[in-house]
Amino acid sequence: MNYTSLLQEKCLTILLSGEIDHHSARQTMEAITAKIDVYLPRRCVLDFCGVSFMDSSGIAIVIHTLRAMEELEGEVCLANVPPQPMKVLRAGGIDKLVRFGAERSPA
Amino acid sequence: MKTENETVLQFPSLSANEAFARQVASAFAAQMDPTLEELGDVKTAVSEAVTNAIVHAYPDRIGPVSLRLRRLPGNVLEITVKDRGQGIADVEKAREPMFTTGGAERSGMGITIMESFMNSFTLRSTPGRGTTVRMRKKLTGRGEAACKA
User: Fold this and answer.
1) A105 domain-assigned
2) Do the chains contact at A56 and B110, CB–CB below 8 Å?
3) Total structural domains in chain A?
4) What pLDDT does B106 receive?
5) B70 assigned to active site
6) Residue B94 in 3-state DSSP?
7) Domain assignment of residue A89, given as a range
């Protein structure tokens, strides 16, 4: 599990890659929290474009990010989710909690 | 039910073995010509079951976890994950979505996902003696899926 982050106009994008499971989840959650605490973004986009596998630990990462952004009254968006992680997110009901797609919300 | 092929793997409850276990399951299932979605379902279910054993069965120590894979007639894959850990005191509670006694990195959705991704799911646990999860999934196979398309 690796990640890269980009900050543009208060939008923090975390590009996730590799396999997301319990083994890597805690480290990923801590890294995301650290980025949010430093940059105080209005939006956080979790981009799954490079994720080759994800189990329910990915649900915990999304919920953790949601809570961190709620403290800033910001929003979370999921982008480029491949079919296997999407099936896991839907089974966990995450598709009802967050928006999908990285497009900007209306000002 | 007659077993057409099987393998048994035993490993210590180290989180690094989660990926190893699902890769073994994926390699075993490959002989059954699964679709990509079916292979993803199998890997996800194995990852959830093995993670539960690692996180919940042995919270304070490293113990043995076994993964048994069987190919059954009708292109059915059976997965059994067994530990000899502390067991589950309240199985019904453990099966509730969002319930977890694990850390922040657990969502409490593991059992829900195993139930929804596999055709059958059984969980037996005895406090102090361990837990056994058994799941079955009929794999359509890419050939059969192509014929239906």
Assistant:
1) no
2) yes
3) 1
4) 66
5) no
6) helix
7) 2-100
The percent of residues above 70 in pLDDT, for chain B, comes to: 88
B106 is catalytic: yes
8 Å CB contact of B107 and A22: no
Domain that holds residue B113: 5-148
- Determine the Cα angle at A65 with ends A63 and A66, to 5°: 60
Structure tokens at B70: 């069987």
Active-site residue flag, B48 = yes
Mutate to test the interface with B, among A33, A53, A55 (most CBs of B within 10 A): A55
**Two structure tokens written together for A65:** 């990010």
d(CA A32, CA A12): 10
Question: Do the Cβ atoms of B11 and B17 come closer than 8 Å?
Answer: yes
Amino acid at residue number A106: P
For residue range A51-87, list pLDDT tens digits in order.
999 999 999 999 999 999 999 999 999 999 999 999 9
Contact A83 B37 (CB under 8 A): yes
B36-52 helix and B17-29 helix, angle to the nearest 10 degrees: 140
CB within 8 A of B3, min separation 6: which ones? B70, B71, B72
**Tell me, what CATH number does B102's domain have?**
3.30.565.10
Please list, in sequence order, all residues whose beta carbon lies within 8 angstroms of the beta carbon of residue B49, skipping any fewer than 6 positions away. B79, B81, B110, B114, B133, B135
Q: Which two tokens stand for residue A4?
A: 């890269």
